[in-house]
């Protein structure tokens, strides 16, 4: 039966599915469900039915979900307790001295995930040199009794300097695991890295989302088994997949699972001759922007979700609350705004005909003619144009605009402005010229907005991959298996013994290689967090084995000059040692065969200069090497592509579309 892989990505509005078999790519969309696993199974069944195969013949199942990030955004995670060192109970509340809104006198810090009444202290003391005061086991058992009486659902343990010497923390965690029938997250297992607030915050997040992840993955595994398909492999925030048991133990690694899959998919399917790609994923509730350079997604270890720092390796994604389902509204000053509130999947935009009455970006696209009344979103949702016009007419009255079309144009422009700012934040603000990149547009709504956004940034090329509406699901089929480890090891490069550094890398490498699915196929990549003496931030650079201090110093100086415009004649400090293991997977081969007449008809569409009668094409019937001049609209089951006047689009052999400004 060959290699039959299926990838499923759960979004806020739709659950996307891609099925690869014998060079063919079958896609499907179904509405997301409250219990995400129900929508996942429904999507798998729909894709298998379209491919006319038995689900039991699927050889591999990869999955990206929003369970953990939803728990953080909606603040409905587990009833969590924190056990920490005596005197450090309030570290989650104190946080850092920096304020995101420096001049806002009414600025509020986020409410800690663990309230003070569920934060407990133990009398122990560990320094960077070792354990000075061991744990009193009787005290820990007394705390366990209190936690039992409080019916806590999860426990985070974060003791002072446990990243360097975890003996006390290990003992506390072991006792709590023996005494309580709940998950226990220990900071040295979650993040063996210094900076107490970030380490404690990341551990608390892991504990907060862990029961939900455990329930969800267990439930999905059972449903998959009933359907006869393999246990799911889960996409992590770092852009790699891993087995279900690993994410149960390291739940925090799933916080940006879906967006990471989209960036991986763009990098694998939309690679072109540009220096790199700006990836633009516009879904139902939000838009995600990232960079792919030298064939790899940009990564960071400085993530923030709902104002809570999470230090775990993740694809560097900038998210804005502007998706197809984002609701348009007028603020107190009369300005038109978009999001972050979304109509979601139920009731959804007004045009879905499910009872929604508030205007959304999707309604605006329908009124502008970019989506037609006959367009079937996700292959199954028909649209109600009258409801969309009514919703936009109400918005026009509130905003003082001349009718629903003007309101729709305003919504489209404001949504594009929000996304343009996000792209600037990952390019211009980080020293990259966006004009040197291509714009890879995907998600259900991304290709409708991509050309207009590219115009505003002087980007001259837009790449719309095959299966662009479900590209995150495709990315799951192409993603490598990845695992990360970090350990703080603070030394000056002037005095450090390279053999000691190599010993740290060797130990971290062995820990990861013991967990990979195929040790012989795994590659090991080492990197180091370095800084000039006196700095409070680091830059991560790749390092070779055996460790060479001169080479590491030069690589850091080059990276610092690129990021900040200068290099200094100062001592360089090693802060953290990092290791990533990768087991590569080949992206599934995808054949593109177009047959039939691609022209579907035409309809009126509103562009910046005028209302134009615009030809409409069916994407799957566009022959390779064909070209279309704008204005034009290209429709697929998962997404719609808008080609404005003065642009044209070319069809590649694999079905990828490349839109560019016309030279005429």
UniProtKB/TrEMBL annotation:
GO terms for cellular component: cytosol. InterPro entries: ACX-like_C, ATPase_NBD, Hydant_A_N, Hydantoinase_A, Oxoprolinase-like. Pfam families: Hydant_A_C, Hydant_A_N, Hydantoinase_A. It comes from the Archaea. GO terms for molecular function: 5-oxoprolinase (ATP-hydrolyzing) activity. Residues 199-482 form the Hydantoinase A/oxoprolinase domain. Residues 504-651 form the Acetophenone carboxylase-like C-terminal domain. Residues 5-179 form the Hydantoinase/oxoprolinase N-terminal domain. GO terms for biological process: glutathione metabolic process. This is N-methylhydaintoinase A.
């Amino acid at each position: 039966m060959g290699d039959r892989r299926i990838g499923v990505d759960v979004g806020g509005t739709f659950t996307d599915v891609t099925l690869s078999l014998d060079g063919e790519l079958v896609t499907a969309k179904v509405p997301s469900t409250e219990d995400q696993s129900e929508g996942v199974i429904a999507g798998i069944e729909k894709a298998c039915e379209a491919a006319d195969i038995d689900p039991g013949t699927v050889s591999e199942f990869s999955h990206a979900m929003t369970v953990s990030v939803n728990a953080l955004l909606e603040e409905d995670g587990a009833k969590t307790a924190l056990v920490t060192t005596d005197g450090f109970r309030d570290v989650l509340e104190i946080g850092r001295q920096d304020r995101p809104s420096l001049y806002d006198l009414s600025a509020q810090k986020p409410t800690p995930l663990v309230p003070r009444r569920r934060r407990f202290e133990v009398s122990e003391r560990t320094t960077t040199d070792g354990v000075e005061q061991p744990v009193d086991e009787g005290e820990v058992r007394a705390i366990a009794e209190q936690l039992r009486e409080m019916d806590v659902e999860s426990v985070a343990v974060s003791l002072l300097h446990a990243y360097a010497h975890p003996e006390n923390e290990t003992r506390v965690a072991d006792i709590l695991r023996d005494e309580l029938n709940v998950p226990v997250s220990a900071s040295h297992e979650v993040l063996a890295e210094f900076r107490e607030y970030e380490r404690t915050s990341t551990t608390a997040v892991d504990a907060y989302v862990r029961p939900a992840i455990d329930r969800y993955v267990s439930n999905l595994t059972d449903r998959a088994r009933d359907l006869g398909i393999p246990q799911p492999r889960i996409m992590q925030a770092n852009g790699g997949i891993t087995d279900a048991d690993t994410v149960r133990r390291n739940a925090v690694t799933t916080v940006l699972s879906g967006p990471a899959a989209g960036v991986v998919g763009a990098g694998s399917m939309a690679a072109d001759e540009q220096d790199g790609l700006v990836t633009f994923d516009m879904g139902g509730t939000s838009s995600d922007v990232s960079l792919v350079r030298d064939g790899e997604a940009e990564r960071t270890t400085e993530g923030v979700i709902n104002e809570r720092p999470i230090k775990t390796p993740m694809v560097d994604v900038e998210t804005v609350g502007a998706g197809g389902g984002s609701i348009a509204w007028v603020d107190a000053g009369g300005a038109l705004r978009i999001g972050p509130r979304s109509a979601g999947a139920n009731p959804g935009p007004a045009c879905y005909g499910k009872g929604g009455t508030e205007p959304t970006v999707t309604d605006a696209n329908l009124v502008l003619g970019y989506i037609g009344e006959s367009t079937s979103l996700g292959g199954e949702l028909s649209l109600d144009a009258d409801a969309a016009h009514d919703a936009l007419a109400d918005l026009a009255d509130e905003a003082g605009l001349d009718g629903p079309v003007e309101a729709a144009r305003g919504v489209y422009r404001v949504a594009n402005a929000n996304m343009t700012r996000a792209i600037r934040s990952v390019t211009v603000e980080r020293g990259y010229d966006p004009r040197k990149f291509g714009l890879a547009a995907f998600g259900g709504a991304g290709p409708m907005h991509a050309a207009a956004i590219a115009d505003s940034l002087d980007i001259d090329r837009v790449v719309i991959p095959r299966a662009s509406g479900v590209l995150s699901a495709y990315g799951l089929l192409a993603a490598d298996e990845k695992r990360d480890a970090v350990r703080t090891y603070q030394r000056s490069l002037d005095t450090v013994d390279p053999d000691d550094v190599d010993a740290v890398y060797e130990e971290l490498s062995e820990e990861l290689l013991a967990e990979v699915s195929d040790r012989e196929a795994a590659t090991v990549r080492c990197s180091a967090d370095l800084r000039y003496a006196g700095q409070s931030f680091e830059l991560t650079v790749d390092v070779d084995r055996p460790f060479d201090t001169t080479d590491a110093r030069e690589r850091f100086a080059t990276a610092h000059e690129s990021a900040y415009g200068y290099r200094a004649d100062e001592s360089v400090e090693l802060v953290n040692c990092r290791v990533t293991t990768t087991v590569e997977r080949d992206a599934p081969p995808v054949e593109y065969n177009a047959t039939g007449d691609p022209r579907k008809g035409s309809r009126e569409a509103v562009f910046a200069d005028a209302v134009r009668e615009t030809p409409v094409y069916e994407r799957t019937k566009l022959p390779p090497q064909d070209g279309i001049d704008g204005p034009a609209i290209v429709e697929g089951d998962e997404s719609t592509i808008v080609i404005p006047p003065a642009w044209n689009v070319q069809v590649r052999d694999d079905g990828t579309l490349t839109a560019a400004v016309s030279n005429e």
